[in-house]
């Protein structure tokens, strides 16, 4: 821990530095690969929308020693057409999700499940979601997402500056697109819990970006008057100064989310947690990455195109290339190395 704090001190003082801004093409290339992979996953597999968005029916049976195989066999015996999703929830529950069903088809599944697991039909938790309600939920979720982005854009433009707002929104879109692509690749269902996770990671991504941008603003407040460094150099210093803080904050946030994802959903079989925890885990990781490797380099690139920053870069380059001026020697005077002993004036002595 002392080594980490010592490294943080050296990064803050500028004694040790990582060139995040100068190597931005590498980060852009890596993000480009992730974005292309996400686009391919979305175009080939698409998102697996839950019944809350596309409509359908859900049947949940609770009994000890229950299995997915028995539930699948029961649904097959009912001869229901269309895609059927069977999931185990915990150790004593199994959930069967289907598309839109008629009353007769719904009753057939309930009878088959009750017969297979030897339970009463009344004990089967049945939920029916119409397609129109699912479309309404989808529309409201998209409205909430776009409204969130617009409000955040306006706030960042007023609190910081418009170009910081643009860079932050690009980083947020980057995070959401990659998270959605990984969701399509993994094949998890998109549920209302997933939407909550997406909105949560938007807030976290912006929080980490705002922390870095606040330090950038502090470092560049009087940059044109001092002419000691360019805007990119000052922004790179800000990223290094907040690097340890971003790492510690992200690690503390990822540990409980990882426990929910890998222990709760993976080992204990709590399927209702995996939708939220996966979105949070991926979003927290990509949010930290984008605030350091995407948002700040984009901001530096946007600001370097300004005439004032271009003039600053020229002054810094000239100042760094100028040789140290030698000490001027008065005309006719000899150099210190060649100067002989100084003749002292003679004084008349009284005898």
Which labels suit this protein?
67% helix; two-stranded parallel ribbon; Alpha-Beta Plaits; 351 residues; 8% strand; alpha+beta
Concise synopsis of the structure shown:
With 351 residues, the protein is an alpha+beta fold. It has helices at 2-13, 24-44, 51-54, 68-78, 103-117, 131-159, 162-186, 192-219, 223-226, 231-241, 243-267, 271-304, 307-321; strands spanning 48-49, 56-62, 85-89, 93-98, 125-129, 189-190. It has two domains: 26-49 and 133-314, Multidrug efflux transporter AcrB transmembrane fold; 56-129, 2-Layer Sandwich (Alpha-Beta Plaits).
Structural topology:
Blueprint (H helix, E strand, L loop, with lengths): L1 H12 L10 H21 L3 E2 L1 H4 L1 E7 L5 H11 L6 E5 L3 E6 L4 H15 L7 E5 L1 H29 L2 H25 L2 E2 L1 H28 L3 H4 L4 H11 L1 H25 L3 H34 L2 H15 L30
Mean pLDDT: 79
- SSE succession: HHEHEHEEHEHHEHHHHHH
Examine the coordinates and then state which fold CATH places here, giving the name of the CATH topology of the largest domain. Multidrug efflux transporter AcrB transmembrane fold
Specify the helix fraction band: 55-70%
Give the domain tally. 2
* Strand residues, percent: 5-15%
Which structural class do you get from the secondary structure elements? alpha+beta
CATH superfamily of the largest domain: Multidrug efflux transporter AcrB transmembrane domain
What is the radius of gyration?
32 Å
- What does the largest sheet look like? 4 strands, antiparallel
Q: How far is the first residue's CA from the last residue's CA?
A: 81 Å
So what's the CATH class of the largest domain?
A: Mainly Alpha
Q: Which CATH architecture of the largest domain would you pick?
A: Up-down Bundle
Low-confidence stretches: 322-342
Tell me the overall shape.
Answer: elongated
SS element count, helices: 13
Query: Would you count the extended β strands for me?
Result: 6
Q: Order of strands across the widest beta sheet?
A: 3-4-2-5
């Amino acid at each position: 821990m002392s080594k980490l704090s010592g490294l943080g001190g050296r990064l803050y003082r500028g004694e040790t530095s990582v060139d995040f801004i100068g190597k931005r093409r590498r980060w852009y290339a890596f993000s480009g690969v992730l974005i292309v992979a996400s686009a391919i996953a979305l175009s080939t597999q698409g998102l697996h929308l839950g019944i809350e968005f596309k409509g359908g029916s859900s049947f949940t049976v609770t009994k000890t020693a229950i299995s997915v195989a028995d539930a699948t066999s029961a649904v097959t015996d009912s001869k229901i057409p269309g895609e059927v999703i069977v999931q185990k929830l915990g150790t004593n529950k199994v959930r069967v999700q289907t598309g839109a069903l008629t009353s007769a088809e719904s009753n057939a599944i309930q009878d088959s499940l009750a017969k297979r697991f030897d339970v009463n039909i009344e004990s089967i938790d049945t939920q029916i979601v119409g397609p129109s309600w699912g479309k309404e939920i989808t529309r409201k979720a998209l409205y909430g997402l776009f409204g969130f982005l617009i409000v955040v854009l306006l706030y960042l433009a007023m609190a910081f500056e418009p170009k910081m707002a643009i860079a932050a929104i690009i980083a947020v879109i980057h995070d959401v697109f990659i998270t959605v692509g990984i969701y399509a690749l993994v094949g998890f269902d998109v549920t209302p819990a997933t939407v909550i996770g997406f909105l949560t990671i938007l807030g976290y991504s912006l929080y980490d970006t705002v922390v870095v941008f606040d330090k950038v603003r502090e470092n560049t407040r009087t940059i044109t008057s001092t002419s000691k460094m360019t805007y990119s150099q000052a922004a790179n210093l800000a990223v290094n100064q907040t690097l340890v803080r971003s790492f510690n904050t992200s690690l503390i946030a990822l540990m409980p989310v990882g426990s929910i994802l890998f222990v709760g959903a993976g080992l204990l079989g709590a399927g209702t947690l995996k939708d939220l925890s996966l979105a949070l885990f991926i979003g927290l990781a990509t949010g930290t990455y984008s605030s350091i490797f995407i948002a700040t380099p984009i901001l530096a690139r946007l600001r370097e195109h300004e005439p004032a920053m271009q003039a600053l870069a020229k002054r810094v380059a000239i100042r760094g290339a100028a040789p140290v001026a030698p000490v001027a020697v008065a005309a006719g005077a000899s150099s210190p190395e060649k100067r002989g002993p100084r003749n002292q004036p003679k004084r008349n002595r009284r005898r």
